[in-house]
Design a protein that fits this description.
The protein is of the alpha+beta class and 771 residues long. The protein contains 19 helices and 23 strands.
């Protein structure tokens, strides 16, 4: 048998059973899908019907609770109407009371005193009394509201009389229950009464209420409690629907899903498409068999061609065959070709590795040469900078050895030695500072400082160098303070290094300008000069260690290239940044330093400290609390102090009693303070934040919640002094935040503000808050 015929038979034997079983599986799958869709629709109808039934049940519970009213039992309809109005029933529900003849006695939809229609509602009332259970009415026009509505009524026996107590539902009451999130937006959910009238629907406007439902639905609902059917939606599209009766109300809840949304409408076309696909698969199988036959025929020719090519030294292509004999031949040819390729690949890989190793060796050599050059330059600079001061020191020492040296020359020699030693000390200090910064050993002594003070100190340090170079230093400082949280000594060192750098690289009689300003949440300090400028190739690494501009014979100041590197490291430790810019050689340079401003909260800033004074005749300044005491009235305050540190609490209470004539009660936990606060009614509270049972923030909130302490002064005395701690204190209700260790004057001044702000005797109460 030829290869082509064999392939045809093989394809037919495989594809025909596959086609038959695939068609059967598709049919079963479509049936299961249709049943699943109908089950989902029925489940949705039951779930929504249960919501409506629960709504009716909840309403019946409220009605029966209202029927037990004593006012109805004694016939006080006015009081009963007030109870009915206050009963929680929503904006789309109202209460109606009918007598046994069906006349309306109360209707909460109408204002009190409005005359009610005298016509009785006898058919419904008669049915209600005969059944002796809750009855849901069909859709009817409301005589008072004028809208279509339904009732849920119960029979009531009170005070020897019979009533019908009903809850009326507007035509929009049940619409939210039908439009639940779990119901798809294109599904139609209808609530129909016993007469087939539409009570509510999730699709369409409210005007649909009262229209007849689909006749096929009404007929099906009359014959069974639930079921499924096919119908047309109000928009005209075909749908699968399920209906369920809503409890004992007689109403019907129907859910219709569009056939297009469920996918059942396309079931027939899907089967046709599946049949077409299977036929196409058979055709493809025949084509593939033809293709494989031709491929095998060509494989024999390729084997011959590969043998010929290998004989000419050409590598044969790696192609296979379905025939065993041809595969053996092709394997032998392929093996020979693989050996040739492996040898060639090995030679190429070895060449690439040699090239890569050569490039790496060249890069390593270049880096080593650059590092060696940098090391040599640094050692040369270090030797030069150390020899420069040693020469005059040696000369001065020899001068001091000379006999008969006069006082002026000796003093001059001593001054020379002192200046040169100071110069060497600066060099060594810079080197040690850089070493400590790079190893992370520098600790900042942070405090609130004014940058203008830093500038003044830096200018004073660099004044001798500026005067020596005959530079004109221009300062542009703001009139207001520029506050930052920083180490004043280190920041002064930064500004002095920038000024020194500008002075060294600016020709004599140059111009150096220092500007200070603030914008947003940053302070900006700029040092600009008209000196030599910075070369473009040096600008990216101007802040690197040992980086310097070109050394010239006429620039004797020298330096090791550490100043700017130290500037950048110290500024980064302060959370700031520094950058340099220059138009090029001869164009001068600009160094801009930015630091975060210190943000103060006005409501939580520390109280102003009273002035310090010195008593006459003592000869030494002493602290006094007299300014705070002068602001106080004759009698002291009642103060509650809460702190778990017993030594701190007792010492502070003694201080307040002695210095301010205050009456202080001390507690060591928040629970005791809360227990006795209402009894003692203090004029001010001093609270620690880190208490054992609850933190001071929670204690402040609970005190503020008490009416008698809504305006009482609350002072947070705590070791937590960050910005976020002050914000939390203000949110908790504190009037003032004082960080430990606190100056006594600050606490007494804060307490004095209670009396100044209140302007009354401490025994009296005030609701005015201290700001």
């Amino acid at each position: 048998m030829r290869i082509r015929a064999y392939l045809y038979l093989m394809a037919a034997a495989i594809m025909i059973p596959v086609v038959l079983f695939a068609g059967l599986a598709l049919r079963l799958l479509q049936q299961a899908e249709a049943e699943a869709v109908l089950a989902d629709i029925t489940h949705t109808a039951r779930r929504v019907a249960l919501l409506v039934r629960d709504e009716l049940a909840d309403t019946e519970v409220h009605l029966r609770a209202l029927a037990a009213s004593p006012a109805l039992a004694r016939g006080d309809l006015a009081a009963f109407r007030e109870e009915a109005v206050t009963t929680p029933h929503g904006t789309s529900t109202w209460i109606v009371l009918l007598d046994e003849e069906g006349r309306q006695l109360i209707n909460t939809v109408a204002p009190a005193g409005t005359p009610l229609p005298p016509e009785p509602v006898t058919p419904n009332v008669a049915t209600l009394f005969s059944r002796q259970r809750a009855v849901a009415t069909d859709l009817m026009p409301g005589r008072v509201s004028g809208r279509l509505m339904t009732y849920l009524a119960i029979p009531v026996q009170a005070g020897g009389r019979r009533y019908a107590l009903a809850a009326g539902f507007s035509n929009e009451h049940f619409r939210p229950h039908l439009g639940q999130d779990s119901v798809p937006a294109d599904w139609q959910v209808d609530l129909v009464d016993r007469k087939g009238k539409l009570i509510a629907s999730n699709l369409g406007s409210v005007e649909l209420v009262g229209q007849p439902a689909a006749p096929v639905l009404a007929a099906a609902a009359a014959g069974a409690a639930e079921g499924t059917l096919d119908l047309a939606m109000r928009r005209g599209e075909p749908a699968q629907a399920a209906w369920v009766q809503v409890g004992s109300s007689g109403w019907t809840l129907a859910v219709a899903a569009p056939a297009a949304a469920t996918g059942l409408a396309h079931a027939g076309s899907a089967r046709q498409l599946a049949g077409a696909v299977l036929l196409a698969a058979l055709a493809c199988a025949a084509l593939l068999a033809t293709w494989f036959a031709r491929m095998h025929a060509r494989s024999i020719g390729l084997a011959v061609d590969a043998a010929v090519a290998l004989g000419h030294g050409v590598l044969p292509d790696a192609k296979g065959s379905r025939i065993v004999e041809l595969d053996r031949l092709l394997d032998a040819l392929r093996h020979a070709g693989a050996e040739l390729r492996r040898a060639q690949s090995f030679r190429e890989h070895a060449g690439n590795e040699r090239q890569l190793l050569l490039e790496r060796e060249q890069q390593a050599r270049q880096m080593a040469e650059e590092e060696n050059r940098a090391k040599d330059q640094f050692l040369a600079m270090l030797g030069h900078e150390l020899r420069n001061p040693l020469a005059p020191i040696g000369t001065a020492a020899q001068l001091l050895k000379m006999p008969g040296l006069d006082v002026h020359r000796a003093r001059y020699a001593a001054d020379v030695i002192g200046r040169q030693i100071e110069h060497m000390n600066r060099l060594l200090s810079d080197m040690l500072d850089v070493s400590r910064v790079t190893r992370g050993l520098v600790t900042l002594n942070l405090e609130d400082i004014d940058l203008r003070t830093v500038v003044e100190r830096a200018v004073e340090q660099t004044r001798p160098l500026m005067e020596e170079c005959q530079h004109r230093l221009e300062l542009r400082l703001p009139k207001h303070p520029v506050l930052v949280r920083a180490d004043q000594t280190r920041l002064t060192q930064v500004v002095a290094n920038l000024l020194t750098n500008s002075a060294k690289y600016t020709p004599p009689r140059g111009h150096v300008q220092l500007s200070l300003g603030s914008g947003g949440d940053e302070a900006t300090l700029t040092v600009a000069d008209d000196g030599e400028g910075i070369a473009p190739e040096l600008l990216p690494r101007v802040f690197d260690l040992f980086s310097q501009g070109e050394r010239k014979p006429d620039r004797p100041q020298g330096g090791l290239g550490l100043g700017l590197a130290l500037v950048r490291s110290l500024v980064q430790l302060h959370g700031g940044s520094v950058d340099a810019s220059s138009p090029g050689r001869g164009g001068g340079s600009i160094f801009a330093l930015k630091l975060p401003l210190k943000i103060e909260l006005p409501a939580l800033s520390r109280a102003p400290l009273p002035a310090r004074s010195a008593e006459a005749g003592t000869g030494a300044p002493q602290q006094t609390f007299q300014p705070a005491l002068q602001a106080a009235p004759q009698n002291g305050l009642r103060i509650m102090l809460v702190d778990d540190n017993i030594d701190a609490a007792v010492s502070l209470s003694l201080l307040l009693e002695a210095a301010g004539d205050h009456l202080v009660s001390t507690y060591y936990d928040a629970a005791s303070a809360l227990e006795w606060a209402a009894f003692e009614r203090p004029d001010a509270f001093i609270l620690d934040i880190g208490l054992p049972d609850m933190n001071g923030y929670e204690l402040a909130r609970r005190l503020r919640a008490l009416p008698e302490f809504a305006g009482t002064m609350l002072i947070a005395l705590t070791g937590y002094g960050q910005l976020q701690d002050k914000v939390r204190a203000r949110e908790a209700g504190f009037d003032l935040h004082i960080a430990k260790p606190a100056e006594p004057e600050a606490i007494l001044a804060a307490l004095a503000r209670v009396r100044v702000a209140g302007g009354e005797h401490p025994g009296e109460r005030t609701d005015e808050r201290v700001n």
